Amino acid sequence: LQITGLIFGGVGMVGTLAATAMPQWRVSAYVDGNIVVFETIWEGLWMDCISQLGLRLQCKLYDSMLALPPPLEAFRALMCVAVGLSIISFLMAIVGVKYTQHSKDGPQAISVFILAAGVAFLLTGTLVLIPVSWTGGSIIRDFYDPEVPTPLKRELGAALYVGWASTALLLAAGAMYCHF
């Protein structure tokens, strides 16, 4: 169970890092009957990208942190904290598993490392879930809002799915470690 939790936590950590770095949080939606699509727009936490015919990709980092909308600033901060905490959680889990295999003191000696890793994984999963779900909810709300112009409508991007999968793995790893 500890090794499974370590694998889930490691994959969740990598997924958290990937979701934070990916520019596909919000992807342009093609709502009308227009089949000819020349550009795809991606909006992420750190940059916007435009893909032209799937051949040419241009990305531009956001110019100023102060010019960003407050939710985006908060999502950046939460995801950065989640990345750091996931790395710390994973390292604590490694120490806990290693200490468990070499300990002669019994289950009381391992509970501190394992429990700390479990709580940290649960907290990390929650930190990832907040910005990913909030962004997903706002995309869906804007998509069905008739007052939002069609060119501004977006769909759920791949980074959100990676974030949700990472959340599930991190919460599962945390539950496994808190079970001990």
From TrEMBL:
Q: Does the keyword Methyltransferase apply?
A: no
Q: Per UniProt, which keywords does this protein have? A: Cell junction, Cell membrane, Membrane, Tight junction, Transmembrane, Transmembrane helix
Regarding the membrane, this protein is recorded as: Multi-pass membrane protein
Q: Per the UniProt record, which residue ranges are transmembrane?
A: 74-97, 109-136, 156-178
GO MF: structural molecule activity
Keyword Iron-sulfur appears in the UniProt entry: no
Please tell me one Gene Ontology term that the record gives under cellular component: plasma membrane
Q: Where in the cell is it found?
A: Cell junction, Tight junction; Cell membrane
Q: Which domain of life is it from?
A: Eukaryota
Chief location category: other
Q: Which Pfam families match?
A: PMP22_Claudin
Q: Which family does it belong to?
A: Belongs to the claudin family.
Function in brief: Claudins function as major constituents of the tight junction complexes that regulate the permeability of epithelia.
* Name used for this protein in its record: Claudin
Name the lineage. Eukaryota, Metazoa, Chordata, Craniata, Vertebrata
Tell me the gene name: Cldn8
